[in-house]
Amino acid sequence: MLRYNEGYKVSQILYKAFCKYYNSVQALQIIIDRWDVKYMTNNDTNAMKKKILELKEQRDAVIVAHNYQVDDVQEIADLVGDSYALSKFCAQNQHKVIVFCGVHFMAESAKILSPEKTVLLPEIDAGCPMADMVTAETIREYKKKYPEAKVVCYINSSAEVKAESDVCCTSSNAINIVKSIPDKDIIFVPDKNLGAFVAKEVPEKNIILWPGFCPTHHRITKEEVLKVKGLHPDALLLVHPECRPEVVELADYAGSTKQIIDFANNNSAQKMVIGTEVGVLHKLRKDNPEKTFYLLSQGLTCPNMKKTTLESVLISLRDMKYQIELNEEIRIKARTCLDRMLQMGG
Ligand code: 13P
Ligand code: SF4
Question: Which spans in 149-250 are helix H?
Answer without folding.
Answer: 159-164, 174-179, 192-201, 215-218, 222-231, 245-249
